[in-house]
Amino acid sequence: MTYIRTFAIALLLATALSLPSSASAASVSDLIAQLEAIQAQLSQMKGQVLGVSASADEPLVLPGMETTSPTTGQTTPTTTPAPTTTKNTEVTPEVLPGVSTTDAGVIYMEVVEVEANTEQDNTLGDYTITVEVTADDNDVYVPLSGGTNARSGFAFDILSSPRWKGTVSSAVSAYRAVEVGSYARIEEGETEVLELNVWLDPNEDGEYRVRLSSIQYTDTPGGALSVYLLNSRERKQTTTETLRLLGEAGSERSTIIEPVSTDADVTYTDIPQHGTFEIDFDVTALGGDAYISATEGVIWGVFGPGMHIPKNVAHTLTSTASKSGGFFIVDEEETERFTVTASAVAEKTGPHKLELKGLIHKGSADGKIDVYSLGGRDFTTKPLTLIAGTTTVKGAFNIKTLSAKKENPTIKGTASGTKTVGFSIGNGDKVYGSGDIRVKKNGKWSHKVQEDLRAGTYTITLYANNVELAKETLTVRLKEEDVASKMAIVAGIYEGYYPNGRGFQQHTEGTVTLNIKADSSYPAQPLVLSSYESTNWIINNPNRAKISKIIAIGHYKQRVTGVPSGTPIEYYTVREGDSVPVVTKKDGELVKLEQWLLDRGLYYSGVYFGGTNASSIDIEYGYKG
Fold this sequence. Notes:
Helix content: under 10%
Number of helices: 5
Number of strands: 44
């Protein structure tokens, strides 16, 4: 190999000497580039036989590696010339003592994908370099770490203009390889997919990109490392796009992330297609509060076989931390529990898992971002085998059940290709959701609506695994008595009549007469009586109109007299701790009262106000047809 290298160098030098004195700098640069390419290829060839017994050839020495004298046995570190500073500055990985040859055999690398994306208003660069690594003649172990030094499994360069200054974080993921401690094991003759993620948070505005420079590996976890040094072609293939990033100044905050638990589960239809994954972790804020976006606070991925990203991937982030303006806030020196939940539908059959790669946090809602890198088995769920299938899921309603004469109809139907279905009922807004309904072995299902439905027309939609199966019209035709029993009449006053007046801050009982203008032919309706001051409501019902029940509410105590025998009465008093809106006029409290009634399955059909010192109120009582 020494002779090959000497011949190549001599050939290039001879070519250089033959150049005229007027040769351009570009020509010289081309020659230098060719020389570097040959040197890299020779390094590659030598790197593939590292660990083979010594020969008479002069050993190939990589920059920064140690060499050992065969006569003295003394180890001498080689030196690396300082890099030349140019506009496009390169941070060269440092090869530290201890990186040496082993008997780990040979590895090969193929580039799968290279990506670069900006995040957090272009202040953070997210770079991904994915490669396939093959072990040729022995099992090898690759450290699951990245960095700008060769003690990491993946060493990378930061190419930047201006010169790099800022915070860099990285993580390495293995998708099918067995993880042994902090290493990924690649068995002899096997190929595994490994991914390097790098996050750059620069101090200055500029252009930034990342490239892979070398991969370190060993024959046993914790052993001395061998180096796979990328040649110029491979370095070019692994160079990401250039991102324009903003280096906004701001106070940095620190966090500590501790794993709690990981879990993975599958939702079965006829085949296990839909996987749900969950990772719990604790976040402690140091040096100030930590603001974590509820939508962009975590860096994560669900990965299927061969690092394939499945379809319909979605996630949610929840926490015990308080939330404001879209951010979870972890107070300084406090710890809060976070849960990231992700779901995916298998597009390729095989093991799937969720990996939490990092946490994005700030010192304030508009502060500078920082990235806390994660990785390893503590932040990765167990593999969950999902099967991609083509089973067609079908479902339909039993049309006869879509015309109801009661508030809580039972809806029935059929389904195939799924073990559960669900339906929603709406009239522009969602009114009711059934949740999961089990499909019986004969393919039939049924469900009774648990909330009261008003008379009217609704849209009812049948789903399975979030896929719409059928949509129909649901008509509810209640009996006149059923409808009337839900249509409340509201009467409101500030205070009743005081024959001798009422003193300042005296809350004595006043009186008001409620004159009901209807007869017994009308269906029974509820009455809602509302007064701020203490009031005796006197019911004047000469034609014996039907009253289903009476609700009396007030800031102070209420009383109702003249009530037909057997009529139920409910009393609510704010001063005694009841939380209920008191309506004395048409204002915002009326809206609150409407919702309060809705929560109790009631609607108001008419409102009558008597104002202050009301002695009587006439109401046009009665719902009919």
